Amino acid sequence: MFNQKQEQVLQELMERYPALKTVRETIIDAYRILENCYSRGGKVLIAGNGGSCADAEHIVGELMKGFKARRILPEELRDRLKREDAKNGDKLADGLQGSLQAIALNGHPGLSTAFANDVDADMVYAQQVCGYGAAGDVFLGISTSGNAQNVDYAVTVAKAKDLKVIGLTGRDGGRLGKRADVAIIVPEEETFKIQELHLPVYHALCLLLEAHFF
Predict the structure, then answer these.
(1) Based on the domain organization, do 20 and 121 belong to the same domain?
(2) To bridge 206 with a disulfide, which of 62, 98, 106, 128 should be the other Cys (CB 3.0-4.6 Å)?
């Protein structure tokens, strides 16, 4: 069951983007996977290329800090910050925000370029899923065609390590649409139009999570 804020998020999404009514249930399914992951203390690993790479960073920005709600730190942590630093503890306690752990796999240029140079550029995301991923975490792969090789390699590692896989794609879903535990395949064919629908989808997922946890 969704709370009132979550129902409002879904209703507004469908009103503003009627084309997404066809994927409403898969959005909800993806949310359930993410909610379960975070309820168990897990994290989300996100990867894509080009515009989808930028989307990965965007999603991390919405999850790791306040989006719409005030994410006040737990009282115990606030008190510990104040005890640790009498001068700055109050400022930290008031300024820091609650987070939902998320990592954009494109954001590590030293590691990525070293691995690309020494091994295989297409395996960079897979290497990071191998290193960061743990059973119960989620890998969110973003590919407008669903056929990006580096994302597909990362899906293989995620599934081998018992991560749940969410795909955000378009067209016919491609390989990602077939392999993901849940694939949100937005109803567009051209890359930029697919990306235009990806943004409201992941904004809605972030808002749903925030409304639940904060």
Answers:
(1) yes
(2) 62
